[in-house]
Design goal:
43% of the residues lie in helices and 13% in strands. With 224 residues, the protein is of the alpha/beta class. The strands form two sheets. A five-stranded parallel beta sheet has the order 2-3-1-4-7, with helices on both faces. A two-stranded antiparallel sheet has the order 5-6. Helix 1 packs across helix 8, helix 2 crosses helix 3 and helix 6 packs across helix 7. The longest helix has 24 residues. It starts with 6 loop residues before the first strand and ends in a 12-residue tail after the last helix. GO terms for molecular function: AMP kinase activity; ATP binding.
């Protein structure tokens, strides 16, 4: 594990590669990757204590239906409890969530991924997922071995309603409006670092260099 405490958030619109970047950060720097989306899937699936897990799942469901509204902040202690140092993706999505996060921990840095609209639209429209695990496939650059089924389970893949072309533009506009005050908040604190590009592989070396100046890596860039 890393010898220095580090708390980082990776921000970006849907389809920007947040999950991929966080997974690489976790491997390269010995950190833990906290995904609010994964937490929601596990809770809604009834993981953990049967009665308590169901209660959390029901409350989280109302938050999901509300588009990850500020009410999700009430579950921050549950989401963050196991993580003493790590990188988080998918949260915060709103200014209310960012302020709630402030009351629990102080962030060391925030990484913002800036991807062109057309690139995001193409990525999302080509994205299919395995509902049980959340594994994501892209039909253009990361297709499944067999079209339409998950590589590990052989179960059918689905395209989420909000990944369909007609819904993508609305999702991106909604993210832009909600994220703007969050980004401005972290920019005013001097902890925001923005990276622009169309490919995660080209953005990653710059993210790695930034983090290497903050915390010792456990893997070289070439090993990742």
């Amino acid at each position: 594990m890393a010898s220095k405490l580090l708390r980082a958030v990776v921000l970006g619109p849907p389809g920007s590669g947040k999950g991929t970047v966080c997974e690489r950060i976790a491997r390269s720097f010995g950190l833990q990757h906290l995904s609010s989306g994964q937490f929601l899937r596990e809770s809604l699936g009834g993981g953990g204590d049967a009665q308590g897990g169901a209660a959390v799942g029901l409350q989280l469901w109302s938050c999901v239906m509300d588009g990850f509204g500020a009410s999700l902040a009430a579950f921050l202690p549950l989401i963050l409890a196991p993580f003493h140092c790590g990188s988080c993706t998918g949260f915060p999505r709103t200014l209310g969530q960012a302020k709630a996060l402030d009351r629990i921990c102080e962030l060391d840095l925030v990484i913002s991924l800036n991807i062109p609209f057309e690139t995001l639209k193409d990525r999302l429209s080509a994205r299919w997922v395995h509902p049980g695990s959340g594994r994501v496939y892209n039909m253009d650059f990361n297709p499944p071995h067999v079209q339409g089924v998950d590589d590990l389970t052989g179960e059918p893949l689905v395209q989420r309603e909000d990944d369909r072309p007609e819904a993508v533009a609305a999702r991106l506009r909604k993210y832009k409006d909600a994220a703007k005050p969050v980004i401005e908040l972290y920019k005013s604190r001097g902890i925001l670092h923005s990276f622009s590009g169309t490919e995660t592989n080209k953005i990653w070396p710059y993210v790695y260099t930034l983090l290497s100046s903050k915390i010792p890596p456990v893997l070289s860039d070439e090993e990742n």
